[in-house]
Amino acid sequence: MRKCCLGNAWPKDGILGGGDALEGIGRCEVCGAVGRIRCGRCRVTFYCDVDHQQADWGSIHEQICPLLVPIRTPLPFLPSEEERKRGAEQLEERKKQLTSLAQSRSQELVLDGKAAEAIPAALHALRFSTELYGPDSVQLVPAYLVLALASTGIGHLQEASKYLSQAEWIVLKTPDCSIAVQSKLQRGLGLLCVAKGNFEQALYHLANDIYLASSAFGLKSTEISGGYFHMANIFLHQDKMDIANSLYAEVTSIWHAFLLKSVQAQEQILKSQPEMSLLSQEREGSEGRMTRAQKAEAFQVLSAVLDIREQTLKQQPEETARVLHTLAMLHYLNMDFPRAHKVGLKALDLLKQLPQQESLETIDHLLKLINSSTK
Ligand SMILES: [Zn+2]
Ligand SMILES: [Zn+2]
């Protein structure tokens, strides 16, 4: 297990003694082996060794450590039926919160390219959703899919395959399984095939992913951009430049349109409520705002497309400028104004060298918006 960058920040409780001292203690949070170390902060979480404690800390435990205490401490004796019922409801609510926290954290880590770090968080999500919904519930599928993606990311293809089979089995047994979940399953299967070098099969699954996602969310939705992006990567790998080029252009166009709308919505809010800063609205899920997973996906996809445009597909500078413009909007919405400004200027400079300059005004306007936000 790789060391994380947190140094010695995690709270140690030392090695628990052998023999009797091990009796009654929990299992390692990460691998399920006998827990010999306990988290010194919550004191309800155990690990087989320091590496697993460190991995869990960096992945999710730092965020949920105190939240685990009420969940893992036995409920006090409550005399009345009503109190017991309320206690049980509260416990279930807490588990639901933890599940969604662990799920979104693991998703973000995978999209940030931190596959190994994502695994402990995804295992938490799987454990809590199993406790809440049972082992066959469709609610477990998102956790299985993140585990499969993360395992694929670190080259553990057998494990990825196992997780995907679990997800596939549940989806097959769930007649009313949502199309969104089915499309994500197809993407997971596609990416595993890519990792195995089976590109034809990968294209089949990715095409299914796009078909399902477009029927659920629409042809220009950001949900289908990932499918296009991974297909484009395969065609690039196969030297089929024309089709790769047009798929990357489609990916850019989807995010460009989406972010343009988000920036405009943002501008409207700032106009009508000038006292509101971008920061004060930075709340997950508030209307018109991107979720963190959406941002992570946009960054992953657009940065990769920019690299490819700058290094391999150089013949269309207007497309490169479009990616830069899209990334500048993303940095702006992410409140990274210096970077938004730098990338926006790069887009502007590139466009000025081209005969068609219809986007100049839009980028110019974005730069003004960025400048006014930094004041
Ligand atoms: Zn362990
Ligand atoms: Zn803890």
Write a compact overview of the structure shown.
67% of the residues lie in helices and 1% in strands. The protein is mostly helical and 375 residues long. The protein starts with 36 loop residues before the first strand and ends with a helix.
Describe the structure.
- There is one protein chain.
- By secondary structure, this protein is mostly helical.
- It has three domains: 1-73, no CATH class; 87-217, Alpha Horseshoe (Serine Threonine Protein Phosphatase 5, Tetratricopeptide repeat), CATH 1.25.40.10; 225-278 and 289-375, no CATH class.
- Helix content is 67%, strand content 1%.
- The chain has 13 helices and two strands; from the N terminus they run ββααααααααααααα.
- A hairpin with a 7-residue loop joins strand 1 (37-38) and strand 2.
- Helix 7 (199-217) runs antiparallel to helix 8 and helix 11 (317-333) packs antiparallel against helix 12.
- One zinc ion is lined by residues 28, 30-31, 33, 47-48, 52.
Keywords for this entry:
globular; Serine Threonine Protein Phosphatase 5, Tetratricopeptide repeat; mainly alpha; 375 residues; 13 helices; single chain; two-stranded antiparallel ribbon
Radius of gyration, CA atoms, in whole angstroms:
23 Å
The shape, in one word, is: globular
The number of helical runs is 13
Q: In what range is the share of β-strand residues?
A: under 5%
**What is the mean pLDDT?**
86
The count of DSSP E runs of length 2 or more, i.e. the number of strands, is: 2
SS content category: mainly alpha
* Straight-line distance between termini: 45 Å
Characterize the biggest β-sheet: 2 strands, antiparallel
Order of helices and strands: EEHHHHHHHHHHHHH
Ligands in the model, by name, code or SMILES, are: zinc ion
Task: Enumerate the spans where pLDDT stays under 50 for 5 or more consecutive residues.
Answer: 1-8, 17-24, 281-287
Fraction in helix: 55-70%
Q: Into how many domains do the coordinates divide?
A: 3
Strand sequence of the main sheet, in spatial order?
Answer: 1-2
